Task: inverse folding
C-alpha cells in the first residue's frame, strides 16, 4: 500500500510546488491573493502559467481546461491542448497568462434560467487562485468561476465566493466589538461527509431505470435488507476494500484529505469523510470526490450510485455538511473558548445561528430541494423536512439561563465563571449526539444533514454564509449603537442575546425529529414543513430572499430568479424522464414477463388436467391475471398523465402493481435483477 505522505498532493499545483517553480516575489503576490482575497496581480499571470505548464507537462499532461461548476449541478470542462505550431512542422507546448486567467466557453448550452438571451451566448470563466490547479486525465484543470457577458453568475462558485466575503465583513465587525485581533481573512470551514452506494456493474447494466434515472423505479423489498443493522461499520468486503484503497490513493494524489471510510446503514452503502478545509476548497474537493468515486468504482467492476434514494424502503444517501467559522483571529468561532470572554463571543455566534436559521429556515430547505432528495426529506428518514436546531441539553440550559437574565452555571460541570459578567465558561467536549436533527451543533461546528448525496454543497453553504452574515450584521449594528450610546458592552450583549433567544428559541429542538409528535409540535410553533421540491423552491422567489441575497451582494434579484427557474425546470425534467422510463420498462419488460408467466402457468394447469389437484395454481393464476390487468390500467393512466404531481402519483400505481407481480412471476421469467441481487451481490 502506498505511503500517503508521498502520494498526497502529487497532482496538485500546491503552495509547495509553487515555491519550487516560481520566483519569491510571485509566490508572495499569489499568497496574498489566496490568503487575504487581494485582487490578482495580472503581471504575474504569465509566469504562473508557464510554471504550471512546465510542471504539468513533466507529469504527462497534454491539455488544460478551465474547470467550473455550472448550474447543472455537476462540473464542466473543455480541454485544449498546449500545442502551438513552431512553423517547422513541429509543435511546442505553450500556455499563456491570458489563457490561465480567462476563458470563453460557449455558454449557450448551459442553463441560465433566462439570464442570458441566446444572442449573448458568451460566457466567461475566470481563474480562482484560492483553489489550486490539479491534473486529472492528463489534463491541467484550473478551477474557475463561470459568468455571463455582464458578469451575471452562471455557476455555483461565484455566489459561494461572494457569500464568504459578505460573512467576512460582518465577522470582522464582531471581532472589533470583542477586541479580537484580525490576523487573517475570515473563512467558513466545511467537512462534507459523502454517502454513496456501490452496485455490481453487470447487475447495473440490466437495469434501465438505474442507468437513466439513477434510482430503481421498480423492485420489491427483499426479506432481508437493513433490519439486522449488520452493515453499519461492519467489516468491509474484500472487493469493496480494494476499491476503497484505490479511491483514497487517487483522492490523496488530488490533494483531497480523505480521512474516514466505512460501511453505512444500508447493504451496499458506504461513506467517505474528509478532513475539513476552507469552504471554497472543500466544495471543489467534494465535486472531485464524487467524480473520483465514480471512476474508481468503474475500475473495480462497480457502478457508484450517488442518487439520494436508489432503493425504495432502504436508507437513502446524504451529505453531512459540517460548517464552522474560522474567524479573523484564526480560531474556530464555534468552539467554546477557554475563557469567559471567548465564551461570550461563542454564545453570540450560537445566537446568531439561531436567528439566521429561524428567520430563513425556508431558504435552507430550498437549497436541498431536488427530485432525488424528496425521497429522503419528509419521507420518514433522516432528517425531516422541518428545519430545527439541536444544541444539546447543556447549551440549551445555558441559552435558557441567558434568556432569564444571565447564565450562572453550565449544567454538567457546575462551573461558575463570570469573569466577563454574566456568561459562563463552557466545558469542552460536549458530545451530545442527535442523529435525527437536520441542523445539529456537534461540539465545535454545525452539521446540516439535509444536503442530498448527489448535490453540490455550494448552494447550502451560500445560504448558511449569507444568513449568518445578516444575523451578525444586525447584532453588530445594535451593539455598536449601544456602545456608542455609552452602554457597558457586556450588559448590552446580555440584553441583546436574551432578546434574540426569546424570539428565536422556537427553532430549538433536542428530541427525536422522526416522530409524529414533533411534526405536530413544529406546526404549533409555526415552523415550516415543506415536503415537496416545487413548494420548497418557492422560498427563492420571495421578497425576503431577494432582499437577503441582494443586500449582501451574493445574488442579484435576477440571478436568484434564474436559479429558481433552473431548479424548477430540472425538477420537472427529472420527473418526466422517470415517467418515460417507467412506461418503457412496464410495457416492454414487465407486462410481457407477466403475460409469459400466466401463459406458462395456464398451460401447466391444463397439462395436469382435472386428474390433479390444481386449486392453488388456479388461484395463483387468477391473482396474476388480476394484477396484470391492474398494471395495464395503471400504464394507460400514466400515459395520459401530465405535470409532475400527477406523474408521480401515476408512477406510484404502476410500481405498486409491478412490484406485486414480481412476487408472483417465476424468478427465471422476471426480466430485472431483484433488490436482493442489487444490494447484496458484490
Ligand atoms: P461525525 O460527525 O461523523 O461523528 P466528526 O465529528 O469526526 O464525525 O467529523 C465529521 C466531519 O466534520 C469531518 O469531515 C470533519 O473534518 C468535519 N469537521 C470537524 N471540525 C470541523 C470544523 N471546525 N469545521 C468544519 N468541519 C469540521
Ligand atoms: Mg457526521
Result:
Amino acid at each position: 500500500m502506498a505511503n500517503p505522505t508521498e502520494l498526497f498532493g502529487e497532482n496538485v499545483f500546491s503552495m509547495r510546488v509553487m515555491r519550487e517553480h516560481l520566483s519569491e516575489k510571485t509566490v508572495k503576490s499569489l499568497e496574498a491573493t489566496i490568503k487575504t482575497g487581494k485582487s490578482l496581480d495580472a503581471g504575474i499571470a504569465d509566469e504562473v502559467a508557464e510554471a504550471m505548464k512546465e510542471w504539468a507537462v513533466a507529469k504527462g499532461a497534454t491539455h488544460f481546461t478551465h474547470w467550473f461548476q455550472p448550474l447543472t449541478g455537476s462540473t464542466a470542462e473543455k480541454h485544449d491542448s498546449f500545442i502551438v505550431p513552431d512553423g517547422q512542422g513541429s509543435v511546442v507546448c505553450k500556455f499563456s497568462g491570458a489563457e490561465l486567467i480567462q476563458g470563453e466557453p460557449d455558454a449557450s448550452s448551459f442553463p441560465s434560467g433566462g439570464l442570458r438571451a441566446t444572442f449573448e451566448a458568451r460566457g466567461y470563466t475566470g481563474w480562482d487562485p484560492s483553489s489550486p490547479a490539479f491534473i486529472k486525465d492528463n489534463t491541467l484543470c484550473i478551477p474557475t468561476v463561470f459568468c455571463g457577458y455582464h458578469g451575471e453568475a452562471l455557476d455555483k462558485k461565484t455566489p459561494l465566493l461572494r457569500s464568504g466575503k459578505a460573512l467576512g465583513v460582518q465577522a470582522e465587525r464582531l471581532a472589533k466589538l470583542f477586541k479580537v485581533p484580525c490576523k487573517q481573512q475570515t473563512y467558513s470551514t466545511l467537512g462534507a461527509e459523502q454517502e454513496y452506494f456501490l452496485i455490481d456493474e453487470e447487475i447495473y447494466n440490466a437495469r434501465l431505470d438505474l442507468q437513466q434515472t439513477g434510482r430503481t423505479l421498480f423492485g420489491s423489498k427483499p426479506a432481508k435488507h437493513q433490519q439486522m443493522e449488520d452493515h453499519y461499520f461492519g467489516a468491509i468486503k474484500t472487493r469493496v476494500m480494494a476499491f476503497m484503497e484505490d479511491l483514497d490513493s487517487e483522492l490523496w494524489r488530488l490533494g483531497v484529505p480523505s480521512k474516514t471510510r466505512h460501511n453505512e446503514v444500508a447493504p451496499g452503502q458506504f461513506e467517505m469523510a474528509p478532513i475539513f478545509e476552507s469552504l471554497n476548497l472543500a466544495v471543489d474537493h467534494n465535486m472531485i470526490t464524487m467524480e473520483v468515486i465514480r471512476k474508481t468504482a468503474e475500475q473495480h467492476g462497480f457502478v457508484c450510485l450517488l442518487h439520494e434514494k436508489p432503493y425504495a424502503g432502504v436508507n437513502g444517501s446524504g451529505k453531512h455538511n459540517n460548517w464552522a467559522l474560522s474567524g479573523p483571529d484564526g480560531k474556530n468561532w464555534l468552539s467554546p473558548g477557554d475563557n469567559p470572554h471567548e465564551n461570550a463571543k461563542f454564545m453570540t455566534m450560537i445566537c446568531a445561528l439561531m436567528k439566521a436559521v429561524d428567520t430563513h429556515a425556508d431558504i435552507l430547505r430550498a437549497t436541498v430541494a431536488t427530485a432525488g432528495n424528496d425521497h429522503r426529506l419528509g419521507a420518514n428518514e433522516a432528517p425531516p423536512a422541518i428545519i430545527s436546531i439541536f444544541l444539546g441539553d447543556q447549551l440549551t440550559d445555558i441559552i435558557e439561563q441567558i434568556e432569564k437574565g444571565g447564565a450562572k452555571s453550565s449544567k454538567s460541570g457546575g462551573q461558575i465563571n463570570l469573569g466577563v459578567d454574566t456568561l459562563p465558561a463552557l466545558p469542552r467536549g460536549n458530545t451530545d449526539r442527535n442523529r435525527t436533527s437536520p441542523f445539529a451543533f456537534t461540539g465545535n461546528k454545525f452539521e446540516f444533514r439535509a444536503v442530498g448525496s448527489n448535490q453540490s454543497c455550494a448552494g447550502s453553504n451560500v445560504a448558511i454564509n449569507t444568513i449568518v452574515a445578516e444575523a451578525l450584521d444586525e447584532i453588530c449594528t445594535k451593539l455598536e449603537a449601544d456602545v456608542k450610546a455609552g452602554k457597558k458592552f457586556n450588559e448590552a450583549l446580555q440584553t441583546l442575546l436574551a432578546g434574540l433567544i426569546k424570539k428565536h428559541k422556537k427553532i430549538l429542538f433536542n428530541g427525536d425529529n422522526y416522530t409524529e409528535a414533533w411534526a405536530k409540535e413544529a406546526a404549533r410553533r409555526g415552523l415550516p414543513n415543506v415536503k415537496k421540491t416545487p413548494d420548497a423552491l418557492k422560498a427563492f422567489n420571495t421578497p425576503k430572499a431577494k432582499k437577503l441575497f441582494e443586500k449582501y451582494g451574493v445574488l442579484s434579484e435576477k440571478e436568484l430568479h434564474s436559479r429558481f427557474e433552473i431548479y424548477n425546470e430540472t425538477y420537472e425534467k427529472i420527473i418526466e424522464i422517470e415517467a418515460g422510463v417507467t412506461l418503457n420498462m412496464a410495457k416492454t419488460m414487465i407486462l410481457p414477463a407477466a403475460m409469459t408467466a400466466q401463459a406458462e402457468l395456464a398451460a401447466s394447469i391444463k397439462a395436469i388436467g382435472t386428474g390433479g389437484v390444481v386449486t392453488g395454481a388456479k388461484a395463483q393464476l387468477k391473482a396474476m391475471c388480476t394484477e396484470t390487468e391492474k398494471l395495464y390500467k395503471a400504464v394507460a393512466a400514466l400515459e395520459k398523465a401530465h405535470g409532475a404531481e400527477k406523474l408521480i402519483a401515476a408512477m406510484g400505481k404502476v410500481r405498486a402493481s409491478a412490484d406485486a407481480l414480481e412476487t408472483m412471476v417465476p424468478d427465471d421469467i422476471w426480466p430485472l435483477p431483484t433488490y436482493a441481487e442489487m444490494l447484496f451481490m458484490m
